[in-house]
Amino acid sequence: MSQVVFAPVARASVSDDVYRQLRDAIVGGTVEPGASLAGERVLAEQFGVNRHAVREAIRRLEQARLVEVSHGGATRVLDWRTHAGLELLGELGASVEVAPAEMIRSVVEMRLAIGVDAARLAARRISTSAAGSLAGHVEVLSRREPAPDLAELGIAYDALWRMIVAASGNIAYQLADNSLVEALQRVPDLALQLSEPEITDLAAQHELIVAITSHDEAMAAEVAELLLKRMVEAAAALVDTRN
Amino acid sequence: MSQVVFAPVARASVSDDVYRQLRDAIVGGTVEPGASLAGERVLAEQFGVNRHAVREAIRRLEQARLVEVSHGGATRVLDWRTHAGLELLGELGASVEVAPAEMIRSVVEMRLAIGVDAARLAARRISTSAAGSLAGHVEVLSRREPAPDLAELGIAYDALWRMIVAASGNIAYQLADNSLVEALQRVPDLALQLSEPEITDLAAQHELIVAITSHDEAMAAEVAELLLKRMVEAAAALVDTRN
DNA sequence: CCAGATCACTGGTCCAACCAGTAGACCAGA
DNA sequence: TCTGGTCTACTGGTTGGACCAGTGATCTGG
User: Fold this and answer.
1) Greatest distance between any 2 Cα atoms in chain B
2) Sign of dihedral through CA atoms B233, B234, B235, B237?
3) Interface residue A107 vs chain B (CB under 8 A)
4) Which residue is the nearest neighbor of C11, CA to C1'?
5) Which residues are bridge partners to A76 per DSSP?
6) A119-136: per-residue pLDDT in tens?
7) What backbone torsions phi and psi does residue B98 show, to the nearest 5 degrees?
8) Which among A193-202, B86-95, B109-118, B196-205 has the top mean pLDDT?
9) C-alpha closest to that of A232 among B110, B170, B2
10) Protein CB footprint (7 Å) on chain C nucleotides
11) pLDDT for B142-156, tens place per residue?
C-alpha cells in the first residue's frame, strides 16, 4: 500500500475544459485554418458556460498562436503547423493527428541536434564556477548506496542536461529544452524505456562532464552524440515497427 | 511618400497591457521565481482595471508557463529559464535581462543546429511531390526581372527553409522554426543585415535544393551548414564588438 | 455607379455578486 | 501531546447582465 503511487486528482476548471476542446478541434483539424470561430456568445451557449470562461480559453488559444482575435471582426483559426511554438508539442499528444511514435522521434531527434551543439558550446563557454558544480554531479550518483532506481537516474540525467544546456549560454536551447523535456514527460513510461541505455551509462556521462569541464569541444560533442543517438535509433525503430 | 512604410497602429487592449507589465516584471527579475503574485482583486485595483482583465492576463501568463495558478492558494511565479517554452524568445526582446546581441546569437546558433539536421532529414524523407514543389523554388527567383530586392529575397529564403523543415518530417523542428523565425522578425533590420550573405547566395540555395531532392543527405547537411554558418559567425562578431 | 451614413454584428470592459478551494487558527477528544 | 475536526478569512472560479468599441455589410441619396 505504501508503495502505491497516487496521481494528483485532475481538477480542470471550466475554462480549461473549453480551452482543451477548442484546441483539440483546431489541432485535430476539425476546424480548418483560416476558418472563423463562432462568436463568443454563441460558444458560451454551446459549451453551456459563461462568456467570460470562453474568453479566458480564447486568450490561451491566442497565446499559443492557435487563433487570431480581432476586435470587431471574427476570431480566425491559424495554421498551427506554421504558427504555433514548440510548447505545443506537449499538448499534441492528447489530440491525435500526429502518431505518438513519430512525435517521440521528432522530440529525440531535436534533442540530439540541440544536445550535441549545447555540449560543444558548454565546453567552450562554461564558467569555472559552473564547471565545479557540474563536476560534482555524477560522482554523487555513482557512489550512492543502495544503487538508485531507474526513475531516480532519469531525474538525475535530466538535471545533468539542464546544467549542460544552461552552461551553453544559449537561451534558445534552454527554452527549447524545457519544451522537449515536458513533451517527453507526457509519455513517462515510453520515454523512460527508450532512454534507459543513456540514463544508466554513467561512464559516458562522466566522460561528457570531463570533456566539458576541460573545454574539449570536440570530445564533448562526440560523447554527447554517442549518448543521445541511442534514443534516436530506438525511437526510429519504434516508428518502423508501428508502420 | 509612396515609399514610406507605415507601421500598423499598436492597439493594445487593457488585458494586453496588464499581461505585458506582469510578463516584463517576471522576465526582468523584478519579482523572484517562487514569489507570490498579489491577489487578483489587488492587482485589478493597482492596474486600475477590472478583475476580468487581470484574469485574462494571468491566463496568458499561465499558458506561457510564467506563473502557476492554484484555486484557493496564491498565484506563484515560476522560473522562466526552466519552465517557459521557446515561444518566449520573441517576447524576450522587450524586457532586457538578456542582451539583444546574445539573443540573436542564440537564435542563429539554434537555427544552424536545427537547419543542418532538418536538411539531412529532408534529403532522407522528402516525398516526390514535395520534391517537385521544392525544385521549382529557386528557379522562379533567379529568373525574375527586375532583380528582387533584399526584403523580397529574405521572404523567399524563409519560405525555402519552411519547406525544408516541413519536408524533414520532424514536427518539433517545424514548431521550433516558427518560434525562431518570429523571434528574428522582432528585430527585422538587424536580422536582414546579418542574413544578407545567405539570402543573396542563390547558388548555394540551388545546391541545397538539388542535394535534398536527389536524396543526398551528406551534401544537404554540408551545404546547409555552409549557408547557415555565416549568420552565426556574424552574430558572434556582433556579440564581441558589444562587449 | 459610387461615396457615405446606418446598423447589426463582432470582441472589449466593467460591475457586482456568489461559488469553491485553501490554509491557518483554534478547539475539542484520545 | 498529538490528532483530527471546525471555523474563518482569505484565495481563485464562475456567473449574469450591462455597456463600450471596432468592423463590415448593406442600404441610401446623389
Assistant:
1) 65
2) positive
3) yes
4) A71
5) A36, A68
6) 999 999 998 888 888 877
7) -115, 130
8) B109-118
9) B170
10) 9-17, 20-23
11) 666 666 788 888 888
